[in-house]
Write a structure and sequence with these properties.
Elements: E1 6-11, E2 17-22, E3 27-31, H1 32-37, H2 42-45, E4 63-69, E5 73-78, E6 86-88, H3 89-97, H4 99-110
Length: 112
Amino acid sequence: MSAPWPTELRLNAAKNQLTVEFDGGERFVLPAEYLRVESPSAEVQGHGVDQKQIVTGKSGVTIRALEPVGNYAVRIVFDDGHDSGLYSWTYLHELGREQRAKWAAYLKASRQ
């Protein structure tokens, strides 16, 4: 099975949702808040197993820019200044595919 390949990345006018379509026909609408709190950056994910940081207070965050990184990823620049996560096509696909479960886990962890 080949890695998922995006056919379109589209930011809505309010800059609070990114729609990603893949060559397999999948289409995901990813809220900016979700992308921010699940950033692949070390700041959020940590540097090892079980080091993930729960980032709160991002409900109003928007996307300032999308910057291509080679042929494998996009850097998402958020209006809160965060820009260090490189979202690979595989990771964006995972975020879309697992959005419901990841978001539920985030909400649970952020309430503790």
